[in-house]
Write a structure and sequence with these properties.
single chain, about 100 residues, alpha+beta, 5 helices, 4 strands
Length: about 100
Amino acid sequence: MRARGLRWRSTPAERVLWELLRDRRLCGTKFRRQAPVGPFFTDFFCHEAMLVIEAGGGHHPTPRDPARDEFLRACGYRVLRFRNDDVLSNPADIA
């Protein structure tokens, strides 16, 4: 239920990223939004590519980001972080 709440309260940058990633729009890969991985919720998660995409800012507590990234990398995931400003001003550059 927590993931559903996070999806409803997504930031403008997360909504833009979701439009770029949903329905296998990025290289035919399946992304999930606000997916739990261990004790953390990821903004966007692709299991087949072992990739996590995070949008910076908004409701994320910045002090937890390094611990989250370390955990995800230890699990074998690549973590990409984009600043909200970059996503909103240049969405085509992200995809």
